[in-house]
Amino acid sequence: MDPKQIEEIMDIIKDFFPENTSIAISDKEEYLYYQPSKKVDLKIKPGDPVKEGSAAYKALTYGQKISSYIEPDVFGVPYYGMSIPLIEEGETKGAITAIFPQKPSPFLTNYITIKIDDCWYPIKHNQVIYLETQLRKTFVKTMHREGYHRLNLSDLELFLASDSFIRCHRSYIVNIDFIDEIQPDSHSTFLLIMKDGTRIPVSQRYASYFRRSLGF
After folding, report:
1. Does the reported pTM lie above 0.70?
2. 11-20, 85-94, 175-184 — which one is most confidently predicted on average?
């Protein structure tokens, strides 16, 4: 991964991770970039090997998004990491890791509260069909209600169970339980037909990750 690629990745980091987050970028063996935050600093330097047991190591090993608490024996301090593998043509090339001092928890784990007109409604995560970026907010769709949450899609992704929800596009996260059909689309991408009839694209960026996560 050359400096230009790293620069391009950093240009879009704001679309994927909340502010005030430590960020690490690695290839398959070592760290290439590290930006600490005021909240947590793992003292990573470019050229340091990816340590076994770290969030980045797990994402590289399993080839899928990892959200995990990491014990202090890895870096000397505990942290909560979310690491996303960088996949090109089906092969894992590296990983981007967001680093937090602890798992963010601004609301109850199993609920997401949406606003409809002037009222708020708590919705269980397992009732959510999909989430979509709209007008700097997140549109949340269930079988019976639809409304908006104040956090953006990347913020909300941290609180959704990775065994039920999967990001398939820059603008979409879907609940796997509500996928009715997966259709092939152009340029090695897919089209998801959800159980409510909504048609959601799987972008080329996420196609390999999506296939690997669902095992097809």
Report:
1. no
2. 175-184
Confidence check: pLDDT of 37 > 70:
yes
Q: Average pLDDT for residues 3-25, to the nearest whole number? A: 69
Report DSSP letters for 52-104, one per residue. TTSHHHHHHHHTS-EEEEE-TTTTSS-EEEEEEEEEETTEEEEEEEEEESS--
Domain annotation for the chain: domains and CATH numbers:
3-100 (3.30.450.20), 111-214 (2.40.50.40)
Strand spans (E) along the chain: 22-27, 31-35, 66-70, 79-88, 91-100, 111-116, 119-124, 128-134, 137-142, 146-149, 165-169, 172-175, 179-184, 190-194, 199-202
